[in-house]
């Protein structure tokens, strides 16, 4: 198989024997996890169980102390196709003193699709507009992102990932601090992504309205996998109804 055809068929994430050490403490131990294309996987577990650490390690944002992890068949260091991956972190990164509008943050989700030779295009602007509408923030596009509430900032981060139109979404507690109406809206968005065959890895405390969309769960406790469930993908009917 050529390396490019391997990248097409390799699973979005594959970790084997993953260990992560932070400040000398083993925070993740013996993690074996393959996320297949089309999975909607919830990573569950109590505070401090290692959920955020796991998704950061899958993305190569934290190094493994031992074991191996791959993104579409490549180690994070060798992986180049970042347009295929959208990450929703828990928090808006500190602005470094540079105020950014909501639109600018969301537009940054298109950067992996742009280059010196292909600067921002009508398709980019369209994707940003649609993402803002999807999260209900089109009316706040010119506002400073850092002045929004925590829940609204999460919606900005979700929009940033949506704008990039990736194959895989990794969302770290996207519903924490988000009001009930926005949680329902996010469930609707996830339903559309799942129906379109996108892969979703979702860190959550409670699943709430997204529960019917999940086909796998991974439960962490003290840095180890303590439980796993898997079920056939749920047939997706009209919003709010599973067939
Ligand atoms: N930079 C760090 N240095 C040392 N320990 C850390 C660091 N970051 C996280 N930890 C510890 O690693 C453990 C796992 O943290 P992590 O944030 O991955 O848990 P979590 O399951 O996502 O929790 P929460 O639900 O509270 O977000 C915790 O005990 C945490 O205190």
Radius of gyration: 18 Å
Question: What amount of the residues lies in strands?
Answer: 15-25%
Helix content: 25-40%
How many H/I helices? 6
- How far apart lie the N and C ends? 39 Å
Largest sheet: 6 strands, mixed
Give the integer mean of the pLDDT values: 88
Please provide the ordered H/E string of secondary-structure elements.
HEEEHEEHHHEHEEE
Major beta sheet, strand line-up = 5-6-7-3-8-9
- The helix-and-strand class reads alpha/beta
Overall geometry: globular
Q: Could you tell me which ligands this complex binds, including any ions or cofactors?
A: adenosine-5'-triphosphate
Spans where pLDDT lies below 50 across 5 or more residues: 239-243
Query: What is the β-strand count?
Result: 9
GO molecular function, one term: ATP binding
Domain ABC transporter: 13-243
Organism: Actinomadura viridis
Enzyme class: hydrolase
